[in-house]
Amino acid sequence: MDDKKLFAALRESPEGHGLDGTYYPTAMFLTGIDVGGSGGLLRGFTEWLVVRRGECSSFHWHKLVLLDLFPEMSVAGWKDPDHLTPEQHRQAVDHLFSLVLEFLDVRNSPRELSRMYTRYEAMYAHIWG
């Protein structure tokens, strides 16, 4: 199964993979899939989200996805299931899968991936010197 089909299947039937539709367990499940693939599946996802947002950040993708959907949300305590309402959990999980699927198109295109990393490097050039 290719990566896009895998994530589409997870999105379609999360409960079939032991997920309950809340954000933190879903994010950790995707992290586990990524780690199981030696970190290559989502390599560049955090950087892509930073470029997409247009703002330097030290946050990992777990928090950046939430901030993309809920820009005014405090991400302190984001792991607590009560941090989000049931509707916000649904929205966050759906948004996560939408972003991952969109990112995979970039990751699978050497030209687009190169452009993304070039933009990322340019954003941080003033910080890194």
Description:
The protein is mainly α. It has helices at about 5-10, 25-35, 45-55, 60-70, 85-105, 110-129. It has six helices and no strands. The longest helix has 22 residues, at about 85-105. The chain has one domain (about 5-129). About 20% of the residues are buried. Helices cover about 65% and strands about 0% of the residues.
Helical amount: 55-70%
Mean pLDDT: 94
Q: Globular, elongated, flat, extended or rod-shaped: what is the shape?
A: globular
Succession of helices and strands: HHHHHH
Beta-strand proportion: under 5%
Distance between the termini: 42 Å
Poorly predicted sequence stretches spanning 5 or more consecutive residues: none
The biggest sheet, with number of strands, parallel, antiparallel or mixed sense and barrel status, is: none
Class from secondary-structure proportions: mainly alpha
